[in-house]
Specification:
mainly alpha, two-stranded antiparallel ribbon, 4 strands
């Protein structure tokens, strides 16, 4: 790669950009390389498999960038020790590699797997693999291009926090510092926990030497607690996931699980509303209040951030109004040219519209509405992520489902997959901007990161579709204790509600929806406006809502992970900084990758179920 001198500041550059060019930008440092792309695609592909497993277990997609940069550092340390590579991985090369991995690893998010799973649950139709690979890759690529026109405004000029991007920059700088030794230490913790989790999973699921569930010696309403899904699970992936959550989300999950399966479930059975003491029977009813809490809280939080939304539309108008003219000097020489945004959409949008019409029978006029709507939503999602670190897919998805429920009534597949367009574009725009924030803080080249993200989304799309088909060969597997798939259950439920009408539900379910909507709104408002000392005691609506659609044992395990991490952080912050994220990431990666391998071996007949 050629070495370039730092561009001279141009008249159109903001004061922050002039300072960045002079003090932070590293024109001579190596950014995107062939080896960074290849290793990034491998790490990203592995992490997309890991996220696939975690997503169908918990409903969450776990963070990618922090784990990826530590894995990349570790991999190159090993390759150097084995004398397979000569040059160490550079700071900006790691940043580019992490961008590739992030693009791949997040292919499970943005509604992709929620939509794919929900589609199978409500229609039992499984589109062919090549079409779905193209579908997910095109949506993600549109999200990448949607980030171009707002990057300078949000990052260079306004300096939005993008907390995950900032944390990743600090982690990369730390692990590459020879004086700190932090990189080697974190690598060892990650590798050790991953090996432990992989071995435990093999002994549990392949050889059955370890029980998957450890029952508690108590009964409730004449049934063992395990029948109510209240038990301990030997799944460290749930403990690792809990450790990466806030403690508030963790205890909210425990509270929601105990209320759902320890109070509400027995009451429903006693009244004859639920006729069997099983997970599927109980969750078929609790889905409705749980989904209502998630949707209402997401929309309320979204509305509370009306200033962010307004600023998003202000930024959108700047694209068509007066603004700095592109030049070959200053930041314009480094940033992606703004014409790439309309060019990218002109090339990719027709393919997305074609697939919407062909695969999901969405009317052409309705498909044509989806893409510009998704771009606007993507701009909004990017700003909200920059200010809060939360991409509002829980709000954007249902909004789109509601709109398409009105525009194309009765079209279940169209309702779900149009929401996938909105969520996917929003997530990948926000994801690229998060990694661009990391690059901004480290002095990287923005164009190289866009190329890196595109490599990543292609790798992720190639991995997740065949992996999904292998581990979920039958749609009936979704929504059970083995694969709770809470997000799929929620998306499928919302789609059915908009298609069939709320009136088709049982009277108690309709009441539960109203209560859930009110509770979701109230909790979101309390989280934002309650006196600060009291906010810590307000349950997380996300935690409560998810707890109503996953087994109680999952909520217990994730609470344990969150509690252990919180105790370590309070008692020894320095030790926590060195261990919590690497150990949690290792537990998730080790169990999920081994779990997927075992699932594939079972499906292929090599192992017995």
């Amino acid at each position: 790669m050629s070495v370039a001198a730092a561009p001279r500041p141009a008249a159109a550059d903001s004061p922050r950009e002039v300072e960045w060019l002079a003090k932070i930008y590293q024109p001579e440092a190596t950014n995107l390389t062939v080896r960074a792309v290849l290793v990034g695609m491998l790490i990203g592909g592995a992490m997309s498999l890991s996220n696939l497993y975690v997503f169908f277990k918990t409903g969450w997609s776990m963070g990618v960038t922090l784990t990826a940069c530590i894995l990349a550092f570790s991999a190159f340390q090993l390759l150097q020790a084995a004398r397979l590579v000569r040059k160490p991985l550079g700071v900006l090369e790691n940043n580019a590699l992490t961008t590739v991995a992030s693009g791949a690893g997040y292919m499970t998010g943005g509604g992709n797997m929620a939509a794919f799973g929900a589609l199978l649950m409500v229609t039992t139709v499984r589109p062919d693999s090549l079409s779905m690979i193209a579908w997910f890759a095109l949506i993600a690529a549109l999200g990448v291009f949607a980030a171009i026109p707002i990057k300078r405004q949000l990052i260079n000029q306004e300096g939005l926090a993008f907390p995950t991007g900032t944390a990743t920059a600090e982690t990369i700088a730390s692990i590459h510092s020879a004086a700190s030794g932090a990189g080697a230490s974190k690598s060892k913790w990650l590798a050790g926990s991953a090996a432990f989790a992989a071995l435990l999973t093999w002994f549990r699921d392949a050889w059955h030497w370890i029980p998957a569930t450890i029952p508690l010696p108590f009964t409730l309403a004449g049934h063992k607690l395990a029948a109510w899904t209240l038990s301990l699970k030997a799944e460290v992936v749930l403990i690792g996931g809990g450790a990466l959550m806030s403690f508030k989300t963790g205890w909210s999950l425990l509270l929601g699980g105990l209320l759902t399966y320890g109070v509400l479930g027995p009451s429903l059975v006693e009244r004859g509303i639920v006729t069997a003491v099983t997970y599927k029977a109980i969750v078929a009813w609790t889905l409705w209040p749980g989904a209502a809490i998630l949707v209402a809280s997401g929309l309320t939080s979204f509305a509370i951030d009306y200033k962010s939304i307004a600023r998003s539309f202000t930024g959108l108008t700047r694209l068509f109004g007066r603004g700095p003219k592109s030049t070959d000097e200053g930041m314009a020489a480094l940033e992606c040219p703004e014409w790439w945004f309309p060019a990218g959409f002109a090339v990719l949008s027709p393919f997305v519209v074609f697939l919407m019409v062909w695969l999901f029978q969405i009317p052409l006029w309705a498909a044509l509405v989806a893409v510009p709507l998704a771009v606007v939503m993507g701009f909004v999602a990017a700003r909200v992520t920059g200010e809060t670190d939360v991409t509002p897919t829980k709000a954007l998805g249902p909004v789109t489902q509601m709109l398409y429920g009105v525009m194309t009534p009765g079209n279940l597949s169209g309702n779900i997959m149009s929401a996938n367009v909105t969520g996917g574009i929003g997530l990948h725009a926000a994801d690229l901007l998060t990694t661009l924030k990391t690059g901004w803080l480290l002095g990287a080249r923005p164009r190289h990161q866009l190329y890196a993200q595109l490599f990543g989304v292609v790798a992720g799309a190639l991995v997740i579709v065949p992996a999904f088909n292998l581990i979920i060969p039958d749609a009936s597997m979704l929504g059970g204790e083995a694969w709770p798939a809470p997000s799929c259950v929620v998306w499928a439920g919302v789609s059915k509600a908009f298609s069939d009408g709320i009136g088709a539900l049982h009277e108690t379910s309709r009441t539960a929806i109203v209560v859930g909507l009110a509770l979701g709104v109230a909790l979101a408002l309390l989280e934002r406006f309650a006196p600060r000392p009291l906010r810590a005691y307000v349950p997380s609506p996300s935690g409560l809502g998810i707890a109503m659609v996953v087994p109680g044992s999952n909520s217990i395990a994730m609470f344990l992970g969150a509690a252990i991490a919180e105790v370590i952080r309070r008692r020894n912050p320095a030790f926590a900084e060195k261990t919590v994220v690497p150990v949690a990431s290792g537990l998730i990666a080790g169990e999920s990758l081994m779990g997927i391998l075992i699932a594939i071996l079972i499906v292929s007949g090599i192992l017995a179920a």
